[in-house]
Amino acid sequence: MSSLWEKFYAQRARTLSASSIRELLKVTQIPDIISFAGGLPAPELLPTEEVAAATAEILRTHGTQALQYGPTEGYMPLREWVADRLSTTEMHVTPENILITTGSQQALDLLARVFLDPDDSLLIESPTYMGALQTWNMYGVRYFGVPMDEQGLLVERLEEQLQRHRPKLIYVLPTFQNPSGVTLSLERRARLVELIERHGLLLLEDDAYAQLRYEGEDLPSLLHIAGRAAGGFPDRVFYLGTFSKVLAPGMRLGWIAAPAEVTHKLVMAKQGTDLHTPMFNQIIAYTLLSQGYLERQVPRILPVYRERRDVMLAALERHFPAQVRWTHPEGGMFIWVTLPAAIDSADLLQEALEQRVIFVPGRAFHATGGGANTLRLSFSNSKNERIETGIERLGQALRALV
Amino acid sequence: MSSLWEKFYAQRARTLSASSIRELLKVTQIPDIISFAGGLPAPELLPTEEVAAATAEILRTHGTQALQYGPTEGYMPLREWVADRLSTTEMHVTPENILITTGSQQALDLLARVFLDPDDSLLIESPTYMGALQTWNMYGVRYFGVPMDEQGLLVERLEEQLQRHRPKLIYVLPTFQNPSGVTLSLERRARLVELIERHGLLLLEDDAYAQLRYEGEDLPSLLHIAGRAAGGFPDRVFYLGTFSKVLAPGMRLGWIAAPAEVTHKLVMAKQGTDLHTPMFNQIIAYTLLSQGYLERQVPRILPVYRERRDVMLAALERHFPAQVRWTHPEGGMFIWVTLPAAIDSADLLQEALEQRVIFVPGRAFHATGGGANTLRLSFSNSKNERIETGIERLGQALRALV
């Protein structure tokens, strides 16, 4: 049945569909449901008292500035803070490289606005962050997925894809990837940066989870590898960061680091989108960050999430059939599960809902098909005993299908 | 000289340019410059203490919810508050009609995403809000301007345009219009709503300034006129509201009211854009609004802005040459000035900058050319003596050109 508005909708709006995660998040309102669906921070770790103190302070000292219109580029001290944090002895980053965005999601949208025409080719990891797909679907782009293993993107498969599809951009989440939890190895990072330069395309590095490492050694970002080679801010790497994982998602604060000319284009695109990110939120965040918030908060988060990961991994061993495989992430919020090929995780979700436990079926993370037998589990938002119970329930649901 | 990124930019990004207002706002950082450029609230009226109290309260009582991810639709109590406020005995509005946006600017962008294909025709008031043009330019639409007089849009000119251009949408700011300050008369409102129905197009009503009335009687919105005729929420009117004018622009909070099916489409488009508007800001706003903030704040604002308008109108009489005309707004933030046809307001701005006073030249508000001899003055952001001084300086600058 066609509605009155049908004939008015733009072409791009005809295929719009709600994110399966966000639809699942609504189910999480049911009180006794155990949700491994959304990548939500642990509620008990959210810094309500620190935000309260910072807010009271800035409304006393910067109240008018915090409540007034501000520059599209973002609050200068916050841009400076991000630039300083990214700078190394080999790569000087300036505030002109930094644009503050309304969450990292907006950065994905602004980059699409500035760079993506209909039918442009994009290389993506397969699986990849579904929020990026949801944004870029509206731009009518064509995706080419590159497979991954436990070391991340299979870079040796990339060169062939680059020659065949001549993509404009490659989108990578190299560290504790969403959804797979895997981390791109140092060797592959170096190789990837080199390929980008050689083939002359752009690389978008989404580094939302890098601070959440529970074991192993930090790896340099693709931005820093490229910056070292270039002796300054690299031409072809755009880097996305967020304050949602260690400060608060409800603040909607993220940022893009890019060459100054590109940042300037993104700023103009952002003007028409929301004028600027709330000054109020930016000044609160800057106040916290400049007062050592991260140095206090990250050590509070790490042991909690590390334990939850371990509890989930142990529960998977205990409750899942032998034919099922899963990743062992060194950080982040997610474990990626691969079921026997014949099982569809969407069917499993139906069973699981009856057991009052939910997750995200893997299809949503695959832009080019496949992934029906995969699923994503998030361990950050549930306490240990809920993780144990939830995985047990999920194991039971699974046995009904195997 | 073409940069490395030139060949990567999307078509829509090639024509991107910075808003002249936002560029002018940067000049306002110069301490002794008097700015009539931006439509900024008076800083001394921003509710820093009330926001501080509400924030402390909600971080105590709803802290986790305020800092966590939230629904794309917006914070339900805030949506209910908006719906209740719009409801009349003749038109029941429900939360399903309401989407909370990251400022009203985002609403303009989301509507474009859902409704505007390249080359779609749009009818706009001439002049109109430049922020809307800036957003929609990225969508490659075609504009047809309808002239205005002191009673607003010349509705009798509309019918001919409707037949000739078959536009999808008409965009109207009927009350204390930005930039002209004029208000659409009741007779023309009724006629406009009737034409929309008869010709089967969509109407976008931007009602950012309605609460700022300094004289005369409130007029029903186009939404309410159409709703009364329909006996419920009308099919063809989408209504934009904002909390930037009476609460705080730095919060970036606005909303769309539309038929539930349309709101649902807009929600899906918003998911890909910024996931949701900051929960923190929404809960603070709801707390203030539910505790009678508007009833306290609007009576605080009105006498201050009314006096500033009167001071500016009197100063214009005193300092501007006889050949210059201007509007007499009953509310809002803006006075619209028409210079003799031979004078270009961009030239005047050069003179004015030397006198350390700025405004926005009128060309920026005209999508289809013209307006070179017009300009916009905002009176809300400057104290009486600054208005007096600024208009005197501007009069001197003008005399150099007349």
Topology record:
2 copies of one chain form a homodimer.
Chain A: H1 11-14, H2 20-27, E1 34-35, H3 48-61, H4 63-67, H5 76-86, E2 98-101, H6 103-115, E3 121-126, H7 130-137, E4 142-149, E5 152-153, H8 158-165, E6 169-172, H9 186-199, E7 202-206, H10 222-230, E8 237-242, E9 254-257, H11 260-274, H12 279-290, H13 293-319, E10 325-326, E11 334-338, H14 345-354, E12 357-358, E13 360-361, E14 374-378, H15 384-399
Parallel strand pairs in A: 1-12, 3-4, 3-6, 6-7, 7-8
Antiparallel strand pairs in A: 2-9, 4-5, 8-9, 10-11, 11-14, 13-14
Helix pairs in contact in A: 3-12, 6-7, 6-11, 13-15, 14-15
Summarize the structure in short:
The structure is a homodimer of 402-residue chains. Chain A is 43% helix and 14% strand.
Overall mean pLDDT score of chain A?
Answer: 95
Helix amount of chain A: 40-55%
Derived structural class of chain A: alpha/beta
**Radius of gyration of chain A in whole Å, from Cα?**
21 Å
Largest sheet of chain A: 8 strands, mixed
N-to-C series of helices and strands of chain A: HHEHHHEHEHEEHEHEHEEHHHEEHEEEH
The low-pLDDT segments of chain A are none
Strand order of the largest sheet of chain A: 2-9-8-7-6-3-4-5
Distance separating the two termini of chain A: 39 Å
The assembly state of the depicted protein chains is homodimer
How many strand elements of chain A? 14
